[in-house]
Every structure is written in structure tokens, then in C-alpha cells.
Amino acid sequence: MRFEKYHGLGNDFIILNIEDVRGRNLSELGKKVCHRNFGIGADGMIVFERNDRGIVMNFYNADGTTAPMCGNGIRCFTHYMKNNGLFSGDSVSIQTGAGEMRVTITEGTEFMVRVNMGRPIFEGSAIPIREEAQEYIEKEIEVDGEKIKVSSLFMGTTHTVIFVDDLKGVDVEKLGPKIEKYELYPVGTNVNFCEVKSSQEVHVTTWERGAGMTLACGTGACAAAVIGNKLGRLEKDTKVVVPGGEMYIEVEEDVFMTGPSVKIAEGEFLL
Ligand SMILES: N[C@@H](CCC[C@H](N)C(=O)O)C(=O)O
Question: What is known about its subunit structure (predicted)?
């Protein structure tokens, strides 16, 4: 099975064409190829498909679960399509589980992509949370006896944003999984710990549902920028610094994310 591997700020993905894996159980395949010892190793697997809806991005987390959208992944997917001549020009629309996303390749020394990530949704049933609410912003939850203020939203996928004074002091690997599986979230949540450095810069470390702590999360960066702006802590244009590098987020009615993609490898996976 032919594969290519890419990363967006250290968030890494195996990318395949559906034609090479048609009929296979893709969740099982995702788990297998993403395994860091018994597979190629990645945070997720993305499968390219062209059908009557157009170009479709199918996303699988490292644990085999599906997710509607992946911000770093869609930039890498754009790069993969460009490298394989799967679209012409600099801009194309991609169908995802969170709707249609428009991507545009921008000028730069690296392969850079600007993505229209769509609109954040705050309504409880869309996030989803197990509570009827117009929005769930700065609400206190209790984890292991500790009171934590969380803001949750749907930003391509389910996200929870937590502002802290000192990111280095947060045990992301201890708290992340507990909040991911907190009873409020019927399908779990990605968890973003955020430290505001200035009104135009926020540092974010994400615990990802289905993948654990990653070096970057694109939808998470957007979620942090949206909530930061809503709370008056961040301007509309923000630099988001993550362990793997930085991306730029513009919060308008729609949210725009700009960041790089790097091709790491290509080869054949022995099934
Ligand atoms: N790494 C991603 C998000 C991938 C999906 C997520 N783990 C989920 O299950 O919702 C990004 O860059 O946005």
C-alpha cells in the first residue's frame, strides 16, 4: 500500500488514496499504520477520496476513531494533493465531516496553506455537551477535587479551552485525558491549555482526543483564538505558538488558519 507522510508543525499524518485501500476497514488500518512501534507512526491517518461530493478528506485518529476535521491535517492533505496533481491552481474546496473548507496555497519559503475553517458553534447540542445551553463559556468543572474553568465549542471538532497563568506548570498528560473523558462530553473533547502572552500571542498545548498530547493542533489553535477573542483577551488576529512551531489565526465571522506543511516520507506499507 503506497503512502506518503507529512507533518504540520509536528502533528504528523499518513496520507493514502482510497483507490489503494478500498474495501478495507479504515479504522483498523489507521490504528495499525499510526502505531509508533508496529506501524509507520503518526498522530492520524488521512484518506483522499473523490466522489460525487467532490474532493473528500477522511480523517482517523491514531486510535482508529474518526474525527470530522483536522486543521494541521487539511494543510498536509492540500500539500499531498498538490504533489500528486490532484487539483490545479492555488485554491480548492475540500469536503470534511464539518462541512466544506476552502484552502489556498500562499507564498512562502515553506509550503504554506491558508484555510477557511468555517464558523465556531457555541450551542450545547452541537459541541456536543450533555447540557442544554446557548453556550458553555468559562464554566467551572471539578476534576480530581480541582476546580477548572472551561470553555467548550465546536470548531471543526469538539474543543475545550482552558486559560492558565503558566503553561509550564500544567500536567497536560494527567489532566488532559480526565477532561477529554469528563462526563459532560458525550463524544469526548480535545483539550487546549492556553497561556496568553499578549493580546496578539497565545501559547497552546493540546491534549487530543484519540491521539494524546501532540506538538500542534490546528482546530485547537482556532478554538483558543476564538475563545480568547470572545473573552476580550486576544485581538482578532493572533499568533498561536504550539510546541511544534507557530500558526496564524484570524477570527472573523469565519475563522482562518495559516500554517505550514512538510512532506517527510513516502513508501510502501506492507499490509
Ligand atoms: N490534530 C487535529 C485534530 C484531529 C482530530 C481530533 N483529535 C479529534 O478527535 O477531534 C488538528 O490539527 O486540528
Answer: Homodimer.
